[in-house]
Amino acid sequence: MDSAAELHGDHDVTDVPSIVRGAVLLGLFESVMVLLLSLASRFLSGPLETALLAILLLLGLAPVTILPGIWTRARSIEGIAGAAGIGLAAAFVFLLIDVVLLQHIGTYTNRWHQIGGSNWWYHPIWWMAGTFLPWLGAWMLANQAGRSGRISAPAAFGTAVGFAVAVALAGILIGFPGAGWNVATFGVAFLPGLALATALSALGTRRT
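RESULT FIELD:
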């Protein structure tokens, strides 16, 4: 992802072939990242496992959150919705691979099965999160473009990570149920952190 990119007139690219292509690419990426996370969980333990899982989680969250908005060149609600559509369809691609392959190759530990549980709730949660992340990521990029005419993927994602850390710390300190000093807490905190970062990005945006 470029640190800064000029936006041109060909923004809000939401034709069906582009959405489908983006969804397939993102779904395959999600599958690879989940496989790597499951391998780290199975074969590592202790601080090394935690450190690697944290790195992989960040490497996974960044493209899922930001790339769809870059691909659609989100500038208005059209491009933002297109990015969300890529995220939703990518979740379907991943879940198909998950059901057909990943759940049967023996990399998921008991902890993963406890988290995933039944496909009846695991899959809808993935659909929601998989749509939510690119939706707000594209919204942040559109707000950046509306404010300065330029987008910065690292600034957008970095702000979301900063808010996620703050949310995670707040949850731990106030004793929120299930919150702890672990990667899972940060992963959950990234959702409200991203929402806060998106709200902040809207400040100073030109209205048309």
